Amino acid sequence: MEDRNFSEQEIVRRSKLEKLVKEGVDPFVEAKFDRTHTSEELEKTFGHFSKEELSNIENPELIKIAGRIKTFREAGKASFSTLQDQNGIFQIYVRQDAIGPEAYAKFLELDLGDIIGVEGKMMKTNTGELTVRVNKFILLTKSLRPLPDKYHGISDIEERYRRRYVDLIMSPETKEVFIKRSRIISYMREFFNSKGYLEVETPVLQPIHGGAAAKPFVTHHNTLDMDFYLRVATELPLKRLIVGGFEGVYEIGRLFRNEGMDTRHNPEFTTVEIYIAYQDMSFMMQLTEDTICYIADKLLNTDEVTYSGQKISFKQPWKRWHMVDAIKEYSGVDFWEKMTFEQAKEIAKKNNIYVEKFHNSVGHIINLFFEEFVENKLVQPTFIYGHPVEVSPLAKANAQDPRFTDRFELFINGREYANAYSELNNPIEQYDRFVKQIEERDQGNDEASELDIDFVEALEYGMPPTGGLGIGIDRLVMLLTGQESIKDVLLFPHMRPRGK
């Protein structure tokens, strides 16, 4: 601590701390403060009273409340100050004749950012502002660092993410986003629980990389002396539970993908995955639609939001569009026509679509065309279904055209929000799909899944027809709170070290 370079204000604050300790006042010794109210509860309880009504109450209630000092306004032998707690800002009024000259002098020595507890009675000022008239205060925590300028907050956006705790102190808007995030997850649980689905937990550390096309993080288990992966999906463990007899399970949790970072991607993120026995892709489409509409109505009391300058309508029903039809609409290429891989590669070349060496099928090229020509055109909620079997190793093939699967993705404003399908429950076909994934990995696709023989064996015991769904919670929070970057909906996003 002695080698650190403190600013002038930090030196002053530390000097005040030393003085307090010498006087026998340790501002870190208090273990608790029994509050009677929060700022929100003050407003609910006393906000409707007039100034006169508050002043005429016989035996007025003694208020105990605590918060961080945000402003001071000294006027001779009296001062107004605002304190901040989780729910908001409230005003206190401190008079020298009410708390005594010595205590008042100590009050004036406090700094912005200090956390205090106060005791007093309610009043309203001449302007009608609800205020605690203080008869006693206690310093609960001394702030040794000055807060940023109250009008500008943290001007460096990178510092906002690195010092989220300061951002939360200075920005009510930031705090509101994370309160809404918590509510969104709560409403999702509420909706699923109301339908009788069971919330479960599955391992974060997994011995086999699988459940999604993604590059995993690798760690080492010392006791077992073997490598494990941080999960890229919860899919395979949850489907094992369907094999075991549960008929509707979901998990809200963190996933980890060792990939890039941008405004839409963070290596650590949150999803919900839900699996329901005896249902299919169509049921999961309706469930997705109903879930998001339920959350939007509970959170915003509306079926419309404006996001990135686009008005998004959640009015039901949402559009359902086969991937091949969407590609034909925007590129003119008709992939309903059967063709060889070489023919598809030639069409890709003419349309300036780059084909990787592990893209070894017409299905891969269809998916590339969708990403190039269609994805960013989908503004209103749209279910794209009928993904090629080659890019859907865990989805059931369509009975009428086995080139495609009963899988869909939900797109809103050019971004994917959900991925779902009728789950493949044929263990023989699942084994063959895993083998094809291994071939892709050998050709350079480090996102391809590994062979999970235990999962194949689980399917051999019999999994009923099942619908599965995954929704990206971070992106959903971005949409419903109007945030452009995923970093603005993650309390602690991954950041590059300073100076790199």
TrEMBL record:
It catalyses: tRNA(Lys) + L-lysine + ATP = L-lysyl-tRNA(Lys) + AMP + diphosphate. Its main location: cytoplasm. Its EC number is 6.1.1.6. It comes from the Bacteria. One of its GO terms (molecular function) is magnesium ion binding. Pfam families: tRNA-synt_2, tRNA_anti-codon. Residues 181-497 form the Aminoacyl-transfer RNA synthetases class-II family profile domain. GO terms for cellular component: cytosol. Keywords: Aminoacyl-tRNA synthetase, ATP-binding, Cytoplasm, Ligase, Magnesium, Metal-binding, Nucleotide-binding, Protein biosynthesis. Mg(2+) 1 binds at residues 409, 416. GO terms for biological process: lysyl-tRNA aminoacylation. PROSITE patterns: AA_TRNA_LIGASE_II (PS50862). SUPFAM superfamilies: Class II aaRS and biotin synthetases, Nucleic acid-binding proteins. Mg(2+) 2 binds at residue 416. Its cofactor is Mg(2+). Binds 3 Mg(2+) ions per subunit. InterPro entries: Aa-tRNA-synt_II, aa-tRNA-synth_II, aa-tRNA-synth_II/BPL/LPL, Lys-tRNA-ligase_II, Lys-tRNA-ligase_II_N, Lys-tRNA-synth_II_C, NA-bd_OB-fold, NA-bd_OB_tRNA. It is found in: Cytoplasm. Homodimer. Belongs to the class-II aminoacyl-tRNA synthetase family. This is Lysine--tRNA ligase. It comes from Spiroplasma syrphidicola EA-1.
